[in-house]
Amino acid sequence: SGIVLVAINPYEHLPIYEQDVIYAYSGQNMGDMDPHIFAVAEEAYKQMARDEKNQSIIVSGESGAGKTVSAKYAMRFFATVGGSASDTNIEAKVLASSPIMEAIGNAKTTRNDNSSRFGKYIQIGFDKRYHIIGANMRTYLLEKSRVVFQAEDERNYHIFYQLCASSSLPEFKDLGLSK
């Protein structure tokens, strides 16, 4: 394991993730500036370029900790320093999930009304100039048990409630849904 960053989700947008902050961390050595997701991303980016080896950033935490948002910030950093932020908008493309996917994988937890119950493995490809050329995201369902049991004050996957609310629509007639 390499560098470990402990971050706290402020549950609001802060100006510490803006474009000018990305440029401030770009090219810096780890420890020269305050701990930040951009410092971790810069270190991985630099090591990838220097050693020509794949790098990994593991974002871990409990529900509502801000894992998805932290991953978005790291991707925004790579897209900006990799020269692809404006022309490809890689962050949006990689994390874009259809509303159906979100409904299937999101549920209400005691800490987050719209918590993703997916694990995500994201691979970002770079060319020889270290510009982003593509990305791939694999998702896997974390809580299959939620289908049949929810803790107190939690809810099943959103899709369950959407299907129940839509059960009277003609296109759902053959699914055997009823009140």
TrEMBL record:
It holds the Pfam family Myosin_head. SMART domains: MYSc (SM00242). ATP binds at G61, E62, S63, G64, A65, G66, K67, T68. Keywords: Actin-binding, ATP-binding, Motor protein, Myosin, Nucleotide-binding. InterPro entries: Kinesin_motor_dom_sf (IPR036961), Myosin_head_motor_dom-like (IPR001609), P-loop_NTPase (IPR027417). The keyword Ribosomal protein does not apply. Belongs to the TRAFAC class myosin-kinesin ATPase superfamily. Myosin family. This is MYO5B protein. It comes from Picathartes gymnocephalus (White-necked rockfowl).
